[in-house]
TrEMBL record, chain B:
<dbReference type="InterPro" id="IPR003593">
    <property type="entry name" value="AAA+_ATPase"/>
</dbReference>
<keyword id="KW-0813">Transport</keyword>
<dbReference type="InterPro" id="IPR003439">
    <property type="entry name" value="ABC_transporter-like_ATP-bd"/>
</dbReference>
<dbReference type="GO" id="GO:0016887">
    <property type="term" value="F:ATP hydrolysis activity"/>
</dbReference>
<keyword id="KW-0547">Nucleotide-binding</keyword>
<dbReference type="InterPro" id="IPR027417">
    <property type="entry name" value="P-loop_NTPase"/>
</dbReference>
<dbReference type="InterPro" id="IPR017871">
    <property type="entry name" value="ABC_transporter-like_CS"/>
</dbReference>
<dbReference type="GO" id="GO:0005524">
    <property type="term" value="F:ATP binding"/>
</dbReference>
<dbReference type="Pfam" id="PF00005">
    <property type="entry name" value="ABC_tran"/>
</dbReference>
<protein>
    <submittedName>
        <fullName>ABC transporter ATP-binding protein</fullName>
    </submittedName>
</protein>
<keyword id="KW-0067">ATP-binding</keyword>
<feature type="domain" description="ABC transporter">
    <location>
        <begin position="2"/>
        <end position="234"/>
    </location>
</feature>
Length: 350, 258
């Protein structure tokens, strides 16, 4: 009677379609590069690696390219895209602002400072090959703690305090990164930092970093889906959330911890990739409506597909040179956002 | 039954509510009236726990509010607040379904029962035709009715409303309050309009500066001699066909008549 059943079937169809789309995009993405491999072969190589099934019709180098080089990268891309999208959804609900994105809390600026310290001054050398992501994660952790403490200053974490604290910490750490680049005096180092800041999936390997990313991002998507109804209430207003049995302050703190951890991990693994976390939540809402139980999983799949697509473009456009993926997502995302704003204006007069 | 004893709240140094005691009895509608700034909304927020008083205590059906989990509290008290939620992209049906939240566990989704309850509540406020519309696109009056439907969907044992007749035209002012009266649940309503209070409330609490000026059955509290000094306006009371009506006129200070 309320049309809820129709919406649920619609969402189920979208989820199925997007999951199939993600699989297809993944296979194509693994197959694309200097050595082109057909999606069918890619699927068979992966199947063979996982279960030992199928006859080997491919060369060992092909197998190495698929399994050792490209697959981890594609998996990381999916995870980062999904993570950015759902963190964007959560933050837009938390601060009730459609322009909120995962970097609103200054976490990426913290990670940048950490990364700059690692690249320019060898910080975190004790962590060996993981020096860069570890140092970036420590920076992200410091930034989120700082934001939390400032926002908590008045005893309650309100959306306005959170926004202001995020912006303040973000600018302060941005200045720190710039100062580190300036102080190092190394043009090559500055270029590396710049490249990292614009985002790249080239750090992907079968290693602990990928496992941690899978665990944290998977957990975040699951958690945000489960608390979808509470997110709906919080997105309407603090007072409403309270009267519907959700303590807005405590819930916001829980969300803050989980989102900070997730953004910290994905920024450490891939740099700050913009626009995905801002645009995908809007797209997901257009497809399946506003309730977060539906928006979160749809946004996760959409984000994963979008980031994979952007990574393929980044790899092939100026091949063999790789373009920072953040440039592609921004180029794709900005016009998209403008279209959304026009639609918003046409339908709601905003 | 909601009982508050000796609750206080201050914004900065000046107390808005100072050691106030009120009781909302089962099956009756309690009206909170008083001029602007007398703390009606603040008192209501103390009653549903959005504000925690440092003194006294609030109990709901004998359970102290501070010891209830937020979900338990939401099953005992449904609240229609003045917050509009105008930016949300939820549809009206989804908004009303949010009222089922306190009854669902974390992993539960809304089921057929919940959808039926939501549909019934929309019908009760005369808003069935709005179900598929975006909530943000409604007029003020339509929004108010949808929010009341959400509160009804909460199926709580108490209903609290903060100026529910705001933004409503005269017909819906009466329809909504008649609906609230007809529920038979213990209700607390913040009202500006004293004639609506006269018609639809069993008991009234009149708030003035800092606290309760008068409390009791509506007919006793709505006494011109009690009201005039609090509101600073001249009042005539008429009893027409068993209904109480108040007429208002400015008090002329110069003594030259009007």
């Amino acid at each position: 009677m309320l049309g809820v059943g129709v919406q649920q079937r619609r969402t189920a169809l979208w989820l199925l379609g997007l999951a199939a789309g993600l699989l297809a995009t993944g296979l194509i993405a693994v197959g694309t590069g200097a050595v082109a491999i057909s999606p069918v072969t890619v699927a068979r190589i992966i199947g063979h690696q996982l279960s030992g099934a199928g006859t080997v019709t491919w060369t060992p180098p092909q197998e190495a390219i698929v399994w050792q080089v490209r697959l981890p990268r594609v998996l990381l891309g999916m995870l980062v895209g999904a993570g950015l999208a759902v963190c964007g959804v959560a933050l837009q609900a938390m601060v009730r602002n459609v322009l909120a994105d995962p970097y609103l809390l200054g976490i990426n600026s913290g990670a940048s400072s950490g990364a700059a310290a690692a690249i320019l001054f060898g910080a975190g050398a004790a962590f060996g090959s993981h020096a860069l992501p570890t140092s970036a994660f420590l920076g992200a952790l410091a930034a989120s703690l700082l934001v939390f403490l400032i926002a908590r200053g008045g005893g309650r974490v309100t959306s306005v305090r959170l926004l202001l604290a995020g912006v303040a910490v973000g600018y302060a750490l941005y200045a720190t990164t710039s100062f580190l680049i300036f102080a190092s005096g190394s043009a090559e180092g500055a270029r590396s930092v710049m490249f990292w800041l614009l985002g790249s999936l080239s750090l992907a390997r079968w290693d602990a970093l990928l496992a941690v990313a899978a665990l944290v991002i998977g957990g975040t998507v699951a958690y945000l889906t489960v608390v979808g109804r509470q997110l709906d209430a919080l997105a309407v207003g603090d007072e409403t959330a309270h009267t519907l049995g959700v303590s807005p302050d405590r819930f916001r703190v829980r969300l803050l911890v989980i989102v900070s951890l997730c953004v910290g991990v994905l920024v450490s693994a891939s740099g700050s990739i913009g626009f995905v976390g801002l645009v995908v939540p809007h797209l997901a809402r257009r497809l399946v409506g506003a309730p977060h139980v539906r928006v979160v999983p749809v946004a996760a799949l959409l984000g994963a597909i979008l980031l994979l697509g952007a990574d393929v473009i980044a790899r092939v456009l100026l091949a063999p040179q790789e373009i920072p993926i953040g440039i592609i997502t921004a180029l794709l995302g900005a016009p998209f956002l403008l279209v959304l704003i026009r639609r918003l204006h046409a339908t709601k007069g905003i | 039954m909601i009982e508050a004893s000796g609750v206080s709240w201050r914004y900065g140094a000046s107390p808005v509510i100072d050691g106030v005691t009120v009781t909302a009895r089962p099956g009756r509608v309690l009206g909170l009236i008083g001029p602007n700034g007398s703390g009606k909304t603040t008192l209501l927020r103390l009653l549903y726990g959005a504000l925690r008083s440092s003194t006294g205590k609030v109990t709901v059906d004998g359970g102290e509010l501070g010891t209830l989990t937020p979900r338990e509290a939401a099953r005992r008290m449904a609240v229609v607040v003045q917050e509009t939620g105008g930016e949300t992209a939820l549809t009206v049906a989804e908004m009303v379904l949010l009222g089922r939240n306190p009854h669902l566990s974390a992993f539960q989704r809304t089921g057929r029962d919940d959808h039926e309850i939501a549909a019934r509540c929309l019908t009760r406020v005369g808003a069935t035709h709005l179900a598929a519309r975006p909530f943000a696109g409604l007029s003020g009056g339509e929004r108010q009715r949808v929010l009341i439907a959400r509160a009804l969907a909460q199926e709580a044992t108490h209903l609290l409303l903060d100026e529910p007749t705001n933004h409503l035209d005269i017909r819906y002012q009466h329809e909504i309050l008649r609906l609230v009266r007809g529920l038979g649940t213990c209700s607390i309503v913040v009202l500006h309009d004293l004639n609506l209070a006269a018609r639809y409330c069993d008991d009234l609490v009149l708030l003035g500066t800092g606290g309760v000026v008068a409390a009791g059955p509506a007919a006793d509290v709505l006494d011109p001699e009690v009201l005039e000094p609090v509101y600073g306006i001249g009042i005539r009371r008429l009893d027409l066909e068993g209904e109480l009506h108040l007429l208002f006129h400015p008090i002329t200070r110069c003594g030259c008549g009007s």
